[in-house]
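Changelog-adjacent note: as of this version, every example in the card shows the full chain rather than a window. The one below runs 91 residues end to end.
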Amino acid sequence: MKLARRRIGPLLGAIALFVFAVPALAGPAAQLTVNPFSVVGLSGTPHLWIADEQGILHWGGDTRALAGRNINWGDRRELTLDQLRAFRRGD
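Full-length structure tokens:
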């Protein structure tokens, strides 16, 4: 009985590490992108992300940083936080 308990603890620990590590293993290729130069808003907030040429989202917190960039303001969508996390985001 004691031997079985000693083996279950490390086994459960290994399973827990695997379960929590799986989302971290999702690489950029598994994440979604949007159309180049489109705009994504975080639902219920004023926060905007602008897609670059590869469709990777960049937070548009500084309007000066948006100067000179191509932005398709007509291609805008609102996402929830969980939806936004599924998309590739840059710096």
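Structural remarks: The two ends are 53 Å apart (CA to CA).
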